[in-house]
Amino acid sequence: MKTITSLLCLMILASALKAQKLVNDSTLMINDSLQIQIYDQILVNVPHSFEFVSIEEHKRHNVSLSNLGKVGLAAGATIGLAGVTSENLGIVHGGIKVISGSTVLSGAGWTQEAINNMKVSKNAKHIIGKTLRIVSFEKKGSKRDGYAYEVITNVPGEKKRYKIDIAQALRLNEIIIL
């Protein structure tokens, strides 16, 4: 039974990785239904857990055991949610658009006091409610395992950049594409 479950999880993860393609230098297509472009804006929602699973500070050549642990955590969360979420991001995106009005209003209405009272990390509190701008796409993976793209963003006017696993962030409702 464990073998079948493991194989199923690997198949779901592999299909999620291959469901992204770069249409051109400035447009990324996700699951043939959602297009995002450089300069599009993303609203950061509340994290899925204590820390954001799909959003982290972007640093070049940042390989460490800590980051490998984050990848494992992200993969585990994705696999765990695969059974309860839709595999069609078009449906997810449509649902997000329907509720985005109320979510955006509640996000925009968060006071600093309300954010400080949330039981999330200090790093998460720093970016909750901020609007990020997409600045580039970064390819990851291999020819054998398939490629996926991370979205590199920044807060306009700030130097710090964030990388986002876009498909996972949408599934976890950690972001809203504006």
Could you please describe the fold and organization of this structure?
The chain has one domain. Helices cover 40% and strands 27% of the residues. The chain has six helices and nine strands; from the N terminus they run αβββββααααβββαβ. The protein has helices at residues 2-17, 65-82, 89-108, 112-117, 122-127, 166-171; strands at 20-24, 27-30, 34-37, 41-44, 55-57, 131-142, 146-154, 161-164, 175-177. The strands form two sheets. A six-stranded antiparallel beta sheet has the order 5-8-7-6-4-9. The chain is globular, with a radius of gyration of 16 Å.
Domains counted in the coordinates: how many? 1
**Overall mean confidence score, pLDDT:** 73
Unreliable stretches: 6-17, 63-84, 97-108
- Helical stretch tally: 6
Strand order of the largest sheet: 5-8-7-6-4-9
* Amount of beta strand: 25-35%
Portion in helices = 40-55%
Shape: globular
SSE topology string: HEEEEEHHHHEEEHE
| Separation of the first and last Cα atoms | 42 Å
The assigned structural class equals alpha+beta
What does the radius of gyration come to?
Answer: 16 Å
The major sheet is characterized as: 6 strands, antiparallel
| DSSP summary, beta strand count | 9
Keywords: Signal
Signal peptide: 1-21
